[in-house]
Write a structure and sequence with these properties.
Layout: H1 2-34, H2 48-58, E1 63-64, H3 65-68, E2 76-78, H4 79-87, E3 100-103, E4 106-108, E5 111-112, E6 117-118, E7 122-125, E8 128-129, E9 132-133, E10 138-139, E11 143-144, E12 149-150, E13 154-155, E14 160-161, E15 165-166, E16 171-172, E17 176-177, E18 182-183, E19 187-188, E20 193-194, E21 201-202, E22 207-208, E23 212-213, E24 218-219, E25 223-224, E26 229-230, E27 234-235, E28 240-241, E29 248-249, E30 254-255, E31 259-260, E32 265-266, E33 270-271, E34 276-277, E35 281-282, E36 287-288, E37 295-296, E38 301-302, E39 306-307, E40 312-313, E41 317-318, E42 323-324, E43 328-329, E44 334-335, E45 342-343, E46 348-354, E47 359-360, E48 364-365, E49 370-375, E50 383-384, E51 389-394, H5 399-412, H6 417-429, H7 433-451, H8 454-467, H9 477-490, E52 496-498, H10 510-518, E53 530-532, H11 537-561
Helix pairs in contact: 5-6, 5-7, 6-7, 7-8, 9-10, 9-11
């Protein structure tokens, strides 16, 4: 019995231990499986993905983790491992001359390579980072981060790259800082997405020794290129700048060759103040959609053509003091703000300024602007053109029609005398004296309507009706002929008599009497010989009026003929 009891007791103890072990294992398994997946680490402190990356890199091969490790959870690389790999400081590891080339890695933890010296080419394509700090880092070769995602901020402030830098299709979920970066060759960020809405993307003071490409890029937050210096081309065609409140800043930006913003979309304000483009500036079909804040090109300089063909400006636009060495091309452009001005004040275009078929729904300011050629064909609007100068101007394809349209355009514009004077001078240069006279007269009539009152207004009317302000002296011949003809009717022989009895035998001619009475100074020896009869009271009084009108009209005709009236 004792043995049996002892056996039972031992069995009971063994059974309890087994139950305890089972419960412990179940609880441990639950805890283990509840934890997030972490990369397995071997004896050397690296996981299988890191071991494979080291082997591939040492052999000069591409380490495409997405192919080697189909499961995303197996592609983790620690931030510390990647830092050591890039700097070539892993124990027992020597960088291959082809550099570090990794595809599809998931980086665990923030990268901190501030002030680091990276002596090889770096390719980290389609990788995913939390945050990365490359501030003042120096890369001896090319840096390719195409298709990579930065979950938090990335800092390339004052980073130096001896080769090119590529961020094609990259996604920046946090702020992107490239302020003061110095890239010797090129910068490409086509189709990149800058998604941070508060701090956005900063490129101020950046230097690029070649081209900078942002084609089809999307910027959801503020963007700053102030003081950036691009030695070759800058291309942001079809880029989208979506922040409606904060301006996209290109202030004092310099581009050594061509700048392209064709089909770019700006939902907020944009500022190109003092930007300098050595070659052409292309913004064909670009859209400036902010209705309240200005698209500002003040003092912008373009060494070639500036093209805004088919561009749309929904808000105010400012080209004050912009200097275009080539032509300013804005055919079919639409300036749609009805209240705020499209301002070209003091703009200088050494080539042609082409606004053919452009639409101006609000006021336009060309005051003090200077153009070699100005084409306003099929353009309507309320223009301010004080002291505007040009060598050639047209408002229709053919000259006769163009001259008519130019006069209409001047009449629709804010009045200043020089608008008409400049048109007159232009028509004279082209050999159209009649059109020049029409421009002069139209200007005088505008002056009378808008600036003159009282006697000044009356005198202007008389000069207009009588001699066309001196440009149509023949007009005065009409009232003169009418008055002489009226005299012929009124001064009939039955109503006239000699002033002296001894002149009775002389033959009376009503025409010569009327003409002699009308002409001042000239004595035709008719008005001194004949007079209305004593009973012709009206005719006696009219004779005085007839002579007085001659004294008024004839000097005006003579002054117009001699050019004294202008």
């Amino acid at each position: 019995m004792k043995l049996k009891a002892a056996g039972f007791s031992a069995a009971t103890t063994c059974s309890s231990a087994n139950w305890f072990s089972a419960l412990f294992l179940a609880a441990f398994s639950t805890i283990i499986f509840a934890l997030p997946a972490v990369p397995e680490t071997g004896e050397e402190g690296v996981n299988p993905a890191e071991k494979w990356v080291v082997a591939q890199t040492a052999a000069g091969e591409m380490a495409d983790l997405s192919k080697r490790f189909p499961e995303e959870k197996d592609r983790w690389l620690s931030a510390h491992f990647l830092e050591q790999l890039l700097m070539g400081s892993l124990p027992g590891f020597k960088l291959h001359r082809k550099g570090v080339r990794i595809i599809g890695a998931l980086i665990d933890g923030p990268i901190d390579l501030e002030n680091a010296q990276i002596l090889c080419e770096v390719q980290l394509r389609r990788c995913r980072f939390s945050s990365a700090n490359f501030r003042r880092a120096s890369f001896a070769g090319v840096v390719l981060l195409d298709g990579s995602t930065f979950r938090a901020g990335v800092n390339f402030n004052s980073t130096k790259v001896e080769g090119g830098a590529s961020f094609k299709d990259a996604v920046f979920e946090g702020p992107a800082n490239f302020v003061g970066a110095d890239i010797a060759s090129y910068l490409e960020a086509s189709r990149a997405k800058f998604q941070n809405k508060e701090q956005g993307a900063q490129f101020g003071g950046m230097k690029v020794g070649g081209y900078a490409l942002f084609m089809d890029a999307v910027f959801e937050g503020p963007v700053n290129f102030t003081g950036a210096n691009i030695a070759s081309n800058f291309n942001a065609a079809a880029a989208k700048f979506l922040n409606k409140e904060k301006a996209v800043l290109f202030i004092a930006m310099k581009v050594g060759q061509v700048a392209v913003l064709d089909k770019a979309v700006f939902e907020g304000p944009v500022n190109f103040v003092r930007a300098d483009f050595a070659g052409s500036f292309q913004a064909a079909a670009a859209k400036f959609l902010n209705k309240e804040k200005v698209a500002d090109f003040n003092n912008m300089k373009v060494g070639g053509n500036a093209s805004f063909k088919d561009a749309v400006f929904e808000g105010p636009v400012n080209f004050v003091r912009a200097e275009i060495t080539g032509s300013f091309l804005a055919p079919q452009a639409k300036f749609q703000n009805k209240e705020k001005v499209a301002n070209f004040n003091s703009m200088k275009v050494e080539g042609g300024a082409i606004f053919k078929d452009a639409v101006f729904e609000g006021p336009v300011n060309f005051d003090y602007a200077s153009f070699a050629l100005l084409d306003l064909s099929k353009v309507a609007g309320h223009f301010h053109m004080q002291e505007m100068s040009y060598k050639y101007i047209k408002a229709a394809p053919e000259e006769p029609e163009s001259h008519k349209e130019l006069l209409k355009l001047a009449d629709q514009s804010a009045y200043t005398a020089d608008v008409y004077n400049n048109l007159e001078a232009f028509f004279l240069r082209q050999g159209y004296r009649g059109d020049a006279d029409r421009a002069f007269i139209a200007g005088k009539r505008r002056e009378r309507r808008e600036n003159l009152q009282g006697l000044g207004w009356l005198g202007s009317c008389l000069l207009d009706w009588l001699v066309g302000y001196g440009r149509r002296p023949w007009q005065a011949g009409i009232p003169c002929a009418v008055l002489v003809a009226l005299g012929c009717v009124l001064f009939s022989p039955k109503k006239m008599e000699p002033q002296k009895p001894e002149d009775t035998p002389r033959v009376y001619s009503r025409f010569w009497y009327s003409l002699g009475l009308f002409l001042p100074v000239v004595d035709l020896q008719t008005d001194t010989v004949w007079k209305p009869k004593a009973d012709q009271t009206f005719l006696r009084n009219y004779a005085r009026v007839h002579a007085l009108l001659g004294w008024i009209l004839i000097p005006i005709v003579l002054a117009a003929l001699t050019g004294l009236i202008k």
